Amino acid sequence: xxxxxxxxxxxxxxxxxxxxxxxxxxxxxxxxxxxxxxxxxxxxxxxxxxxxxxxxxxxxxxxxxxxxxxxxxxxxxxxxxxxxxxxxxxxxxxxxxxxxxxxxxxxxxxxxxxxxxxxxxxxxxxxxxxxxxxxxxxxxxxxxxxxxxxxxxxxxxxxxxxxxxxxxxxxxxxxxxxxxxxxxxxxxxxxxxxxxxxxx
Length: 200
Fold this sequence. Notes:
The protein is mostly helical. The protein is built from eight helices and three strands, in the order E-H-H-E-H-E-H-H-H-H-H. Strands 1-2-3 form a three-stranded parallel sheet. Helix 3 links the parallel strand 2 and strand 3.
């Protein structure tokens, strides 16, 4: 990858909770070594990492958000995404949550009151409100100015190029802006009313 010019790789860490990975059927997430080892191998080749994390599986607790954000900072991830689990229609996850009576909104994608970041179901080991607030808390911790500065300073020797540090800083600035802009926004224009208002 490095020889081909790869500067940034996306890794779906998904979770730091082993039982959550098992539930996702992603036990293989550790076959190439622990997360620390995999990150070290990428950094040894000057490749930055964009990490993604998903919360709300049955093993997750309110502490999972802080743990993931701390891990992402300590590992000098370039950028990271922290999101609540979203059961999509037609999936086994959606059908299971529906059968268990845990969906808070059955047709959430059509619900005009749905907002980006809302919890769609009741998790097992935290409240829906904790699932809604937790990812935002992780984002704020990861994208705080001190965190950005620390990750840039610690990452620079690993990434081996000044332009990569510039890329990281720009990506973090854009992420801060977009997170604040999207949180609490509707998924899309509401049918009928908003479309009529948008038509001249």
